[in-house]
Design a protein that fits this description.
two-stranded antiparallel ribbon; Rossmann fold; alpha/beta; 29% helix
């Protein structure tokens, strides 16, 4: 696709409108279902340094999950934009951490210590049948996943209404390892998304 950037811009706008039209009751119900699947399917997060994004513009709200895994030993982190063409860096977060307004007016920790994440729970504007994510268009997570060694576990989260046939991935795009929606946990494979049980997922990610 020659005009993939313009196409993505249009898709992004349409999907964001779709997401913002979700009722509060639906958003709460779907977010609760996603949180339960993440708790059951990814017990490995409880002993990891996990990067999250503060909920923004109708995204899945990860804060109940953050509380759950922090109480069980996880270290939590939120991303900070350094420069527009650089990877994200992550600062430690806890409930009473000092916060400030960061890039795009999203709250970020105020000069808490930098940490290296081992897993990322990444919000998605859209996702396709091969596990590629449609984000806000800055390329931050693609650059971040390449920059961190070993590469963090990448878990994309979104509502099912944001599923696309194809995001028309480009060479710089990196697929998620797993995608979680209110409908279930999907393992990302070269053949497409494979629905797996929380028990299967837990066994895989605890290896």
């Amino acid at each position: 696709m020659d005009n993939w950037q313009e196409w993505r811009k249009q898709q992004r706008a349409e999907l964001m409108i779709r997401r913002e039209c979700v009722t509060e009751e639906e958003r709460y119900r779907w977010s609760t279902a996603i949180t339960a699947l993440l708790e059951q399917g990814f017990p490995s997060l409880q002993q990891n340094v996990v990067g999250f994004c503060w909920p923004h513009r109708g995204e899945y709200d990860p804060r109940p999950l953050m509380d759950f895994i922090r109480e069980r030993g996880a270290t939590l982190a939120l991303p900070e934009v350094v420069n527009k063409k650089e990877p994200l860096r992550f600062r430690k977060w806890w409930p009473d951490a000092p916060m400030k307004r960061g890039a795009y007016d999203i709250p970020v920790p105020d000069n808490t210590c930098l940490v290296t994440v081992g897993a990322l729970v990444i919000p998605m504007i859209g996702f396709d049948e091969l596990g590629f994510r449609l984000g806000y268009g800055g390329g931050y997570f693609d650059r971040t996943l390449i920059a961190i060694t070993p590469r963090p576990l990448a878990i994309g989260v979104a509502f099912e209404i944001l599923r696309m046939h194809s995001a028309h991935p480009q060479p710089h795009d990196i697929p998620m390892d797993f995608i979680v929606t209110e409908a279930g946990i999907y393992r990302v494979a070269t053949t497409g998304l494979m629905l797996i049980s929380p028990e299967e997922c837990a066994a895989e990610t605890l290896r």
